[in-house]
């Protein structure tokens, strides 16, 4: 075995510095040298500001003090996402993090709730989700500090300033021995077997490595331009292909959730930070011009503009292979779904987690490469299906965009999930999937899809027990949430930006 002694990361931004941070956390500098090459002349998109709970896990796994990180990147807390106007005009639903209800012994909470609804029970599913109740009241508390309470099943993520987060992780990685090289890559040299040997920079400097990580975004300098890996287009399932983003001054309180509002040709986001608000309009260029999208976004924002609107074209899909020869593509270089469920940063972390799991020597054995590519494809397809679900089951027909969404082709894997759920509320769950039952149940319910029947096994439970348990759970969650500080109060008490 000939071990890898040096890894070169090409591209910075959030993806590059997450990759550098993960490697520097796992390897001593004398065991593995890590060099990151980036150019200040190449801008980063910098709008990946909404995260999901695994991001909090990343911060903890890196040994970063959470309070310090939140202060430095001006973060706020996120309990989930509110989705106005998706199912029908005038309707809204919430996708919470964490649990919904507690099991009735061997029986799922959701099945017991379905039976109660069939008996005329007046409860809503989200009344049993601690995150939903907290979000509705604009309250927040760290669930790990209230584990044996009615909100102990809650979870949370963060809204972050992407540029500040990248700078923070850069400092973290450099303090652990990662070398940053400023420069524009003008040439990539390859060995006889096609693997990458070195990079030549505009300055004339050559950067050699045993392994390379492509974090060059949609440009995909290494995986596509050099190694020729193709791209599998998913636009037939995901109709949006552009976004326009703008930052504004804060107005009012910072809500502990993202707002993703369906619009005429896509949807707008609103992400509150401590020092400003991030806004954007994700849309289909077939149904909306860039000028129309910009104007529509500016109609929707509150507060004074802090930046000029920035246009971001994108394509949805994945690489035919994420890893080829001695190169792994991470982040936008490997694939992109769209930002609706804020999974882009998670897929960067996931890519690095799997890379560590299948970490090679210089031979890069095909079995490792094949398994890495298989697992990453599974993750992307699962998230793709979950995002497509938000569009394809809509009842809206008021614009050509929504008419298209209602009738467009969807992946067979998603169609099977929908049909299975419609029968008895059963969910097909794969290996180590990101979105678990509460997420699928929340979106199905929010979009107006409820199973035809509950599982017959629930008839083993005494209905009085179900009724009493629901009443107590609903009451106890609501009562505790009333005692919590508001999200703004919680931030002010402990997390104001440094």
From TrEMBL:
Provide the alphabetized UniProt keywords. FAD, Flavoprotein, Nucleotide-binding
Q: Which residues form the active site?
A: 78
Q: Which residues bind 7-chloro-L-tryptophan?
A: 78
> Would you tell me the protein name for this molecule?
Tryptophan 7-halogenase
Organism of origin: Seongchinamella unica
List positions binding L-tryptophan. 341
What's a Pfam family this protein contains? Trp_halogenase
Query: Superkingdom of the source?
Result: Bacteria
Q: What InterPro entries has UniProt attached to this entry?
A: FAD/NAD-bd_sf, Flavin-dep_Halogenase_NPB, Flavin_halogenase, Trp_halogen
Name the positions where FAD binds.
Answer: 185, 332, 345
Q: Does the keyword Nucleotide-binding apply?
A: yes
Which molecular function terms from Gene Ontology are attached?
Answer: monooxygenase activity; nucleotide binding
């Amino acid at each position: 075995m000939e071990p890898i002694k040096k890894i070169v990361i090409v591209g910075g931004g959030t993806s590059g510095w997450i990759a550098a941070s993960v490697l520097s956390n796992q390897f001593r500098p004398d065991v593995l040298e890590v060099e990151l090459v980036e150019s200040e002349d190449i801008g980063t998109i910098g709008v990946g500001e909404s995260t999901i709970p695994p991001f909090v896990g990343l911060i903890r796994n890196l040994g970063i003090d959470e309070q310090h990180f939140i202060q430095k990147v001006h973060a706020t807390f996120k309990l989930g996402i509110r989705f106005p106007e998706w199912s029908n005009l005038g309707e809204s639903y919430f996708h919470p993090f964490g649990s919904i209800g507690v099991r009735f012994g061997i029986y799922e909470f959701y099945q017991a709730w379905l039976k109660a609804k069939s008996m005329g029970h007046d409860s809503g599913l989200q009344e049993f989700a601690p995150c939903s109740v907290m979000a509705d009241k604009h309250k927040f508390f760290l669930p790990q500090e209230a584990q044996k309470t009615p909100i102990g099943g809650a979870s949370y993520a963060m809204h972050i300033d992407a540029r500040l987060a990248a700078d923070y992780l850069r400092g973290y990685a450099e303090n652990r021995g990662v070398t940053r090289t400023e420069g524009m890559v003008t040439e990539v040299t390859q060995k006889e077997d096609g693997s990458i040997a070195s990079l030549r920079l505009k300055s004339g400097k050559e950067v050699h490595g045993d392994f390379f990580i492509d974090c060059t975004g949609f440009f995909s300098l290494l995986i596509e331009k050099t190694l020729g890996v193709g791209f599998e287009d998913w636009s037939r399932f995901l109709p949006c292909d552009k976004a326009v983003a703008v930052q504004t001054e804060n107005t009012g309180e910072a809500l502990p959730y993202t707002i993703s509002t369906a619009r005429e040709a896509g949807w707008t986001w609103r992400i509150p930070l401590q020092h400003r608000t991030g806004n954007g309009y994700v849309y289909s260029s077939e149904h909306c011009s860039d000028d129309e999208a910009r104007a529509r976004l500016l109609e929707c924002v509150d507060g004074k503009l802090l930046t000029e609107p920035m246009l971001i074209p994108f394509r949805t899909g994945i690489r035919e292979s994420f890893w080829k020869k001695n190169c792994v593509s991470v982040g936008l270089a490997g694939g992109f779904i769209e930002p609706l469920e804020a999974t882009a940063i998670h897929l960067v972390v996931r890519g690095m987690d799997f890379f560590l799991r299948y970490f090679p020597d210089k031979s890069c054995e095909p079995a490792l490469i094949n398994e890495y590519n298989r697992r990453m494809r599974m993750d992307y397809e699962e998230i793709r299906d979950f995002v497509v679900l938000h569009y394809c089951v809509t009842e809206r027909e008021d614009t050509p965009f929504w008419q298209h969404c209602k009738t467009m082709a969807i992946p067979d894997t998603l169609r099977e999930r929908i049909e299975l759920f419609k029968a008895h509320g059963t969910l097909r769950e794969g290996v180590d999937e990101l979105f678990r039952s509460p997420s699928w149940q929340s979106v199905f319910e929010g979009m107006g899809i409820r199973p035809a029947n509950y599982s017959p096994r629930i008839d083993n439970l005494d209905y009085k027990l179900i009724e009493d348990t629901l009443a107590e759970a609903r009451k106890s969650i609501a009562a505790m949430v009333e005692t919590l500080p508001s999200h703004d109060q919680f931030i002010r008490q402990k997390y104001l930006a440094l």
